Amino acid sequence: MTVxxxxxxxxxxxxxxxxxxxxMFIAVMWAAFLIAAFFVDGAxxxxxxxxxxxxxxxxxxVACLVWMLISWMFGDSMILSAANAKELSNRDPDYKYLYKExxxxxxxxxxxxxxxxxxxxxGANAFATGRSPGDASVAFTRGIxxxxxxxxxxGVIAHELAHVQNRDIRLDMLLITGIGATIFAANILARSMxxxxxxxxxxxxxxxxxxxxxxWAGLMVFNFLIxxxxxxxxxxxxxxxxxxxxxLMTRDPKALASxxxxxxxxxxxxxxxxxxxxxAMFIAEPFAKLAGLYSTHPSIKSRVARLEKM
Length: 310
Prior knowledge:
About 70% of the residues lie in helices and about 5% in strands.
């Protein structure tokens, strides 16, 4: 396929996966309440499931929107701080050429020059952050700057600027905070069950407890089974898309392929160890533990194969 076909296919796949988030949430909650309905005397299972699924979905959606707004305002600064990234200027003698390369690739792509950061670590990795091209930042480890030649480094810069251009960082931040809101809701329901269970109560309290248990069970299934799979599938799709878009910017897909092979030998970034939510942001997973459906990135082998065919 051409680069344009790769980009188009990945964009369609991303749209489908994002649409599945609310669809699957409602479906899981509906199924949980449908099962609960069979334990309620005189309840119409379909009506019971539909009414309670709506009752849970609306406040959850509101909570997600509030958390997303907070992420929108402060997310990128927290990410840079968590990675121990230090901002560079175009006068920094040690990394002046890196700043110039970022500036040149941004100019070629028709994007504003992002802020440039360095992470003083030997592992080879990089990431981008920011809500839009106008407030974007790109960060590189010292190891990636030292290990790659000029063409390879340009390919990595283009990949990160492709994430900026495609608004991938914004999408991932919104997904993370949306999932965070549903996890918070599950914790509230768990506490509610604990305190209600200690207090006893009448028959009506038993029905309320059943509703709370069903909502909690549905949230747990969504939070720890469905949502992570969807988010990681989206992340893998956006990596493929950033590879293709970056190749289009530089007209040199083999340079990025070569860079990825070098990065794969040591992508570790000690500052983010244990912060699994940040894995998806890097060009390669800093601490990959699981492959396949539970990985935030496609395998380097498959990415290189696609790039070499472009």
